[in-house]
Design a protein that fits this description.
three-stranded antiparallel sheet, 3 strands, 19% strand, 100 residues, alpha+beta
């Protein structure tokens, strides 16, 4: 059972062999927003417009702009397409999004 706190920290309840209950503190990550920020940083690092960056990944520019602003979710298929074009494992992209 997860309990969300106002500081966006999630505490997960774990039971260890029925002896006691411990809580593990985990930071809650807004992947939708963070992934959009990551894409924006990558785009700016390449000095590309949203349209040029979206074309690079074969994504509609309007949809891409919404993803970059964290307004739309991006599908796993599109994320995999991006990671393939960047020649970077999807797991690494997600890890980068976690730390933003």
């Amino acid at each position: 059972m997860n309990q969300a706190r106002k500081d966006h920290t999630v505490y997960m309840r774990w039971t260890i062999v029925g002896l006691s209950i411990i809580f593990i503190q985990m930071k809650q990550v807004d992947y939708k927003k963070n992934f959009g920020r990551l894409l924006r940083e990558m785009r700016l690092a390449e000095d590309l417009s949203q349209e040029a960056f979206a074309d690079k990944f074969e994504i509609n520019r309007t949809y891409y702009g919404n993803v970059e602003r964290g307004e739309n979710s991006i599908s796993l298929d599109k994320m995999q397409q991006i990671s393939t074009k960047l020649q970077m494992p999807l797991s690494k992209l997600m890890k980068l999004a976690e730390v933003l």
